[in-house]
Amino acid sequence: MGVKHLKVLGILSGTISAIIAPTFSMACISDNILAKTNISEVQTYFSSEVREQIYQEVQSNEILRDYILNNKIIQITTAGKVTDNSFNQMTWEAISEFSRNVGFNLDMSSYKETKSMSTNEIHQAYSDALNKQYKIWVLTGWQHSSFFQSWIQIPVYRQKFKEQNIKIISIDWDATQISELDPGTCISLNFRTQESSFLIGYAISQYLNEKYPDDETKKIINTTAGTDTAGSTNFSYGFLEGIRAWNNEQTDETKKIFSNVYKADSKVFLETTYEPNNPLTRNEFTLSITGQGKEIFKEQAPTIVMPVAADWSNTAANIIKETNKLDQQWVVGVDSNMAISYGPTYAPYFITSAEKRIGIATYKALCFLLGISQTLSLPELYPNSNETNWIINLESTKIEQNSVESNMVVNGGIELGFVGASPSTLSNKEDAKRFDAIIKETKNKFFGENSSENLLKTVDQTLLAKYNEAKLSNNIAEYNLAVFNLANVLYGEMNANNKEYFNLVVSEINRRGN
User: Fold this and answer.
1) Global pTM?
2) CA quadruple 63, 72, 418, 463: dihedral sign
3) What are phi and psi of 441, to 5 degrees?
4) Cα 173 to Cα 212: distance, rounded to the nearest angstrom
5) Which tens digits make up the pLDDT trace of 190-239?
6) Pick from 335, 331, 337: which is nearest to 349 by CA?
7) Which CATH superfamily is domain 193-353+421-448+502-510 in?
């Protein structure tokens, strides 16, 4: 199928709002299916001037234009739709916005929605993409890890995959670990969720003190995790480190935040699993939120809860709703903006969410893989703006670093726009506005380039060295102690079996006096 060049009806200029995309002819059906939503914030993150530069460069650069036209893009979901108000939708928004910005109606931009987690169905989606010669595959979500690995191990598919020079963008999982993928064929995008969670933990501490200056029983938080693995516990790690940072700054102990201690043997409930309908687990989870569990501080329910598993976020909101605690308890969502994911009925129960900015990361990866980043020499369009020594070789179509074919892994945090805090949806609009302002102040304080108080970028080199040694030791106890002593989420991250760390940090948060 030929790809037609669209006639531009409207060009972006510096005077046009950043959320307005170029307007193109709607001549073909594929343009009609491009996403028109912006929950990923792609249209607001990249300025109108940058998007106009992309358009002009592609239209004037014949080599670049032909390269883009010869590299079709497809998104393949795992049992999800591109209208899910979450990762799939954010990914498709990025692909759609990219398609508009390069000025073509891309028959090459498409998606395949699978209906189940069936290996046969997802393998068939990969095979269809192969047969239709899509050259860039965007695979969002850790579920792809096992499905893609088992598919690429089939010799006939692996050979054809290599012959077609296909590139993979693996989002929230690391495809570079798959040995069957040649160097120069993969970008893996991962998200430093501990940074956005730190931002939220500190901001919530300040917010609770402003809202309840004289009520110690309102300054209580709780976090739980689906499993004791890094994908879950990085959120809780950052959240608690943000609270710890706030507490360490306070000379007035009445301003300190307490952590709701759920069980004597585990200061943080780390094994909620991903089964909210399991009655035993749900009962334990309910107790931790309602303040009826073991060792609950002053027998009070936590004011803020951060359940690190999407389904548990909804469960927490429902528990608060059932106990008539709206405007008394709130949830911190994770992964995506849960106020959008669960709709307007649930929005007031979410104070914010620790987001993975899937769309922004995907858009950057597309700009890189299709040659735009290096042609325009715009660092903000590289997946990692600090490493612009990476290129896409337009002749070999391979990714290179310093002229060597290599696969790219990006662990992006706040600085790269990969993570952030969602706008607050508190029912009290003034409270929501104030919380968003605190988030902005906190971001400037800890992550701002010019901040004199940038504590996170001032790291104790001795503690950092011990942390790096512990990472290689395979001694979990040493590793957890090193993370605790480092107390710096820009350098640290969770591993697995983190119970020791959480016991240490919760004990410190709750300690009063000398």
Assistant:
1) 0.91
2) negative
3) -65, -45
4) 41
5) 999 999 999 999 999 999 999 999 998 899 999 998 888 888 999 999 99
6) 331
7) Response regulator (3.40.50.2300)
